[in-house]
Amino acid sequence: MKVLVPVKRVVDYNVKVRVKSDQSGVELANVKMSMNPFDEIAVEEAIRLKEAGKAEEIVIVSIGPKQAQETIRTGLAMGADRGIHIEHDGPTEPLAVAKCLKAIIDAEAPGLVILGKQAIDDDANQTGQMLAQLLCWAQGTFASKVVIDGEHVDVTREVDGGLETIRLNLPAIITTDLRLNEPRYASLPNIMKAKRKPIDAKTPDDFSCDMTPRISITKVEEPPKRQAGVKVESVAELVGKLREKGVIK
């Protein structure tokens, strides 16, 4: 079985995001970028399936600028087999990405698609669900455990009431949650091997994908700074302060 893993290049989660001076977006110049953490979990899960003999090939796909090839190389260094890079310098939106991924899936015919439940830059949490709808495939979202069983996959997912286990017919779409696994670090030998693994360079036009944004951002601003707290000496003073703020009557 072939497993396809879409990944996204985002601002590294350790970096403090800064808003541009003209409030048109966030500052990306000279900022450390890395693979979306949820997508790292997806890559790790695909590798574990291959190590368990459930998958034969892992294909990493990324849509983004030329530098997104570095993100693909990270997945290849972790253990994936080859990559596909759809070069696109403009903004990407979930529906356009899902349509482009559908075209790639139609060409690659994977048995399973694993992707992060959301990207930490826009937190949209939409691409996986849209992709499942476009393909008319079964989907298991927020997966915390994945077990392949013949022509089916059992997905344990986190819901409000606890854990829910669902059985999906393959092929299927799975989106990963934080508790699914802990991604491995790429070793130096694997990093060197990744440089020789193939990455197919494509464009959205190769798949007849329209990447034109449907949403325009009018303004981006930082959240208001938190007000300083006040120390109180007694419960009575605390109640008085809460009443002044209108929290209690």
Automatic annotation (TrEMBL):
Family that this chain belongs to: Belongs to the ETF beta-subunit/FixA family.
BP term (GO), one: carboxylic acid catabolic process
SUPFAM superfamilies hit by this protein: Adenine nucleotide alpha hydrolases-like
CDD domains the record matches: ETF_beta
Domain Electron transfer flavoprotein alpha/beta-subunit N-terminal: start-end pairs: 23-211
Record keywords, A-Z: Electron transport, Transport
Subunit structure: Heterodimer of an alpha and a beta subunit.
Role played: The electron transfer flavoprotein serves as a specific electron acceptor for other dehydrogenases. It transfers the electrons to the main respiratory chain via ETF-ubiquinone oxidoreductase (ETF dehydrogenase).
Cofactor(s) of this protein: AMP
Listed Pfam families: ETF (PF01012)
GO molecular function: electron transfer activity
SMART domains xref list: ETF
The protein, known as: Electron transfer flavoprotein subunit beta
Matching PANTHER family: ELECTRON TRANSFER FLAVOPROTEIN BETA-SUBUNIT, ELECTRON TRANSFER FLAVOPROTEIN SUBUNIT BETA
InterPro entries: ET-Flavoprotein_bsu_CS (IPR000049), ETF_a/b_N (IPR014730), ETF_b (IPR012255), ETF_beta_N (IPR033948), Rossmann-like_a/b/a_fold (IPR014729)
